[in-house]
User: What shape does this take?
Amino acid sequence: MTERSWHDMGGLPAGPVVPEEHDYALWERRVDALLTLATTKGKFTVDGLRRVLEDMGPEFFETHSYYERWIESVNRNLIESGLYSTAELAAKLEEVRARGETYGECSLTAPEAGSGPEAGDG
Amino acid sequence: MPHDHHDHDHGHDHAPGALSPSGHPYRADQDGPLTRAQALEIAVRELMIEKGLVTADEIAAAIARMQARTPAMGAAVVARAWTDPDYKARLIADGRAAAQELGADIEAMHLLVVENDAQTHNVVVCTLCSCYPRFLLGPPPDWYKQRAYRSRVVIEPRRVLGEFGLDLAEDVTVRVHDSTADMRYLVLPARPEGTEGWSEEALAALVTRDCMIGVAVPRLPDPAPVAAAE
Assistant: This one.
C-alpha cells in the first residue's frame, strides 16, 4: 500500500478548529488573479499548482500562509513553462526591492484602477 | 493559526484588535515592510505583463470578478430551491445548470447539491487542499483551508460542528462530503419553520455562508431585536 502524502490529512488527529478568518489583502487578491489568468491562458493547470504546493512539504505548509504558498507555486510553474527564467526573476526581484521598504512603495500600481494602494484592504 | 502570525508583526496604523467594517481583523497590507511573498507577487505580476501574457487591465478585471463572488449567490440559489419545487428538482439533478440559471459565474466543474432534512445533516470539506464552490460562496474562509478542519471533520464531525456552535440531535445522520478539483458540493439547508409565505429575498437573508458549508443551520432572527447602542 502506498504511504499517504503529508497533504492527505483527512482523518488524522489535529487540534480544535479556530473559526478565524481575515479580509484578503491586495497582494493576496492579486495572487489569486495571477493564478486564474495564468491557468486560463494555458500556461499551467490547477494540477500544476497543486503539484508544487504538495511538493513543498508539511513544514512549509505550517509556516506560510495560503497565498504565500500559492505565489511560490505560481512562480515555479511559470518558470517551468518557460515564460521567464530564474535569472530574469532574480533581476526583477532586485528591481522591486530597490523601490522602497513597503509593498505600497515597491508595487507600481497605476494601471489597475480601483485596486491601487488607496483601495487598501481595511 | 501560527502561519499567519508573522503578517501581524509589522508596524501599522490600526489599533491592536481593531476590526474592519466587515468585522474581521485588519491585516498588514501596504504599510508593513515588504515580505518575500509580496516581493514575489510584484515580480511575477510584472514579468507576466512584460512577457505579454496578461495586461494590468486583465488583472484588475480578474480581481473585480473574484470580489463580485459572495455567498449572496449561493443564498439566492437556496431561496429559489425553497420556494420553487421544480427548481429544487433541477438543482438536485444538475447543480451546475441550475446555478447557471440564476446567473452564477460557474467554472467548468460539477456541482453536487446535498439536501439537509429532519434526519440528515450534510457538511463539506476538502481534505486534500481547499476545493470550494467559490462561484456560489466567494473565497473560502481561513479555517476551511487549515489542518484542524480538514483532518477532523471526516472522523469526528459532530465534535467539529459543536466547535462551531452546532449541536445536532443524536438521531440525525451526519454526512461529510470531500470535495475534489472537479467536484464541488453545496449544502441545501432545511427551510426553517415559521417562514411560510416569506419572499425569496427574505429567505435568502437567512442563508449564511456557513449554512451552505454545513457548519451552521439557518436561524430566524430574534423576535425582538435590541436596538443598536449607537
